Amino acid sequence: MEINLIKRNKIFEIKNKYKNILLNDVIPFWSKYSVDWKYNGFLNYLDRDGSVYCTDKSVWIQNRGVWLFSKLYNEVEHKDEWLNIANNGFKFIMEHCFDTNDQEGRMFFSVTQDGKPLRKRRYYFTETFGVIAFAEYAKAANNQIALEKARTIYRLIIDLYRNNLRQVSPKINPQTRLTKTHSVPMIILATTQCLRKIDNNPLYDEISGIIVNEIFKDFVKEDEHALFETVGINGERLDSPQGRCINPGHAIETSWFLMEEGRYRNDENLINKACQVLDWSLDWGWDKKFGGILYFVDIESRPPEQLEWDMKLWWPHTEALYATLLAYQLTKKDKYKIWHKRIHEWAFAHFPDKQYGEWFGYLHRDGSISLKLKGNLWKGPFHLPRALLLCWKLLDEMLQNKAI
User: Fold this and answer.
1) At the top level of CATH, which class does the domain 180-373 belong to?
2) C-alpha distances in angstroms, 346 versus 277, 317, 343, 351?
3) pLDDT tens digits for range 109-126
4) With pLDDT > 70 as the criterion, what percentage of the chain qualifies?
5) φ, ψ for residue 60 (rounded to 5)?
6) 226-227 and 297-298 as β-strands: parallel, antiparallel, unpaired?
7) For 196-223, what is the mean pLDDT?
């Protein structure tokens, strides 16, 4: 009885830590420095102290910002401040972030502060974040236009996914070599899961099932204990730096998407397979010399193509925090509790900025700071707040269900 009480007290302590960091550190940082009340949207190039060092705007970070503040409004508290911020971002996206000359309705990748187009990419990752932004905002604001927009963009994404060769200007000549990347089914699964929570359509279960099958059929190689980042068009193993690449952060993130799908479908076999992917990815990614999760790994220990392979980035660690916690909750295996503690201790010893708040995003292999920025074209209000919110809610669920 006393041991159980100690366990509950520890869970309560960790839960409160995640909650307090989210609500009293991370969200105030982005609310104060990122929101652009003059032109609407979010400023994402933020220096350590929150000062703006470039006013250009990443569109997928506009989408992520709308998703986050809508999510907070929906699941934490109906705060007018959060809804106003989400509305501010939604307005900017609707007015400036869609290419009106594109018959398919694609989005820009980056725009100026006042919304003039700068760049557009062949990939549709920006659109996937548009789907979750509009869906979550539709719920928060009771906005049917936003929900219809989410549905429209989702149908476009699925059409592009099913007709992969329609993507213009592929990196590799498709007449010579056809490849595909794990990041595409990964992001479609996550997008589908988010939209399914807001909108009722049997299509979402159908698509998630197709995606899960593709991941295990083409990207997971059981004989090598790895989820590969790039394979041939039919899942062939490629003998090249690209084909040998393991991205531990992506694989860990996918593992918890798969776990969530297994939980949704009440599929214990899928949960176990997802946990196996997590096990492999942690083993590949954990730096046994300095601790922390490496950015890229060559499965044959050859030189990685990415020069930043040994850096420690914030987002793989936030994904690992939730993945290990979810695996522990679903399996009750102590190894995941041990992994969570190990990742938690390393991440909170190296990433938080005790002076200005939020987290540094880019560290050298030994954990020293590489860049002091808090936001750029890639880092914004998403991975860290999402992980803190998910961990907080999952720990709450453990306490309520006495699942310790």
Assistant:
1) mainly alpha
2) 22, 9, 5, 9
3) 999 999 999 999 888 999
4) 96
5) -70, -25
6) unpaired
7) 97
Which candidate, 121, 114, 125, 94, places its Cα nearest to that of 190? Answer: 125
> Which structure tokens are listed for 53?
């060092």
Cβ–Cβ < 8 Å for 358, 384: yes
Q: What is the 3-state secondary structure (H, E, C) of the chain?
A: CHHHHHHHHHHHHHHHHHHHHHHHHHHHHHHHHCECCCCCCECCEECCCCCEEECCEEHHHHHHHHHHHHHHHHHCCCCHHHHHHHHHHHHHHHHHCECCCCCCCCECCEECCCCCEEECCCCCHHHHHHHHHHHHHHHHHCCHHHHHHHHHHHHHHHHHHHCHHHCCCCCCCCCCCCEEECHHHHHHHHHHHHHHHHCCCHHHHHHHHHHHHHHHHHHEEHHHCEECCEEECCCCCCCCHHHHEECHHHHHHHHHHHHHHHHHHCCHHHHHHHHHHHHHHHHHHECCCCCCECCCEECCCCCCCCCCCCCEEHHHHHHHHHHHHHHHHHHCCHHHHHHHHHHHHHHHHHCECCCCCCECCEECCCCCEEECCCCCCCCCCCHHHHHHHHHHHHHHHHHHHCCC
Per domain, the residue ranges of the chain are 180-373
8 Å CB contact between 192 and 205: no
Token pair listed for 164: 């992969």
